[in-house]
Model the fold of this input.
Amino acid sequence: MPVRRFTRGLRFQLTASYGVFFTLLLLALAFIFRGALASNINDENNANLSEDWGALKGYLKVEHGKPDFFYDHDDPDEAATVSRLRRVYLFLDERGKVVQETPSFDSLTILPASHVPTPERIRRDIQSGLVSWEARDEEGHPYQVRGGIWGDAYEPNRRYCVAIGRSIAYSRTLLQHFTWLCWGVVPLAIVAGCWLGWFTAGRALTPVLQVARSAQRISGSNLSLRIPARGAHDELDYLISTFNQMIGRLENSFTQIRQFSIDVSHELRTPITIIRGQLEVALFTAQTAEQYRDAIVSSLQDIERLSQIVRALLLLSQAETGQVVLQKSPLDLAAVVKDITEQFEIPAEGAQVHLSVSVGDEPLTADADRVQIERMLSNLLSNAMKFTPEGGEVRVKLARRDNDAELIVEDTGVGIPADHLPHIFDRFYRVGSPSASASPERGLGLGLSFVAWIAKAHNGSVNVESEPGKGTRFIVRLPLSPVPSPGNEQNLIATHD
Ligand code: ADP
Done:
């Protein structure tokens, strides 16, 4: 896998974000803990030194410039305390001259500049208020030193300087160990954390890869394949079920397209076969001009049917892909219904079918395309006439239903069996034997597809109810244009003023 693709991978990115977050968290924790430990150790060192200073005040007495420790020599505790106090100890007289000094104090250098302190300087520092400082002996061991002014028991005017020190090597070592531990453990923890992140991200993403692999196997020819759900009822199962539903919808569309291609080829093949037969018969058997003419006329009729199918299909495809722009304008539906029904009166008379229309007096205006509405009504009426035998009845009704216009075209014709009803609006769907498809009276099976599209394009709907042997009823609903209320009109006038 190329590096770029690898670093862009979800697994890498998850691990990287996890690693960065974990590193920052560990570093922050290490700094916080180290800071807290250092401050605690410092406090404890200062407290210990203050305790020693308090004890010094109890034991060290100066009489006429001569310092001495006064304590119970038989008390081991006191003896131990005094010996501890005298381990790192310095006494300067009022002129800064060393009176008493232990060798370990003499070896101390003051931090941080590591300069060797002269007694004079220590005296000046103490007198200027310095109480505590850090120092280091020749071997580098750290010490905490505390100094102060001392008085004389008999000569109150004399002021001396005293300093004692205490080793803080143990606490420093403790802090150092903690730091080393941090530097050792933190990188290890980061590496372990990253590995854990990589492993967890891999486990979490495995089902995604499985889904992708299953999806790769699905193609146009095996759309019946489904990705098995894992049964975990988690987000991935939800993704899988959504994906499966999408494949189901695609499968339906593919089946419809396949069926449509079969239907189209069938519809076009039948007239072509007939034309070919007619022309071949004429070529081999016709002898007179009359016979040739008959063959050509009948072929032309079939060619006309072919071009009707192609024209209707083209228009329907354009309509369904939104390429037909409706020319909508306020349209009086009652007038259109009356006009179109009138056009069917003569054919109805010829077929001995009683045609009636009822539109009411109320004007029903819809924002609609006149040509398409007329086409819809013509299709419904011509079907009703075609499927109603002599002596039957065809009724057209138009009425208001809430904010819609309801157009009903019903007949007392042959009716449609219930199992055909769900497919009646599909392209090329016709009730009856396929063998009759060649008959010239037989329709194209596209009329109701147009009706459904026209109703939908006007934000309306079409439904069918039918009982074989009794008749069929098509109910179209179209939204009416909103009628401006008197209040709105006033508002309009007011606005225009
Ligand atoms: P066609 O051009 O065949 O009429 P349509 O799409 O208009 O195509 O109609 C499809 C089929 O629906 C018809 O072939 C017919 O079987 C059935 N059909 C439509 N209208 C009626 C009706 N009023 N009565 C009975 N059957 C009908």
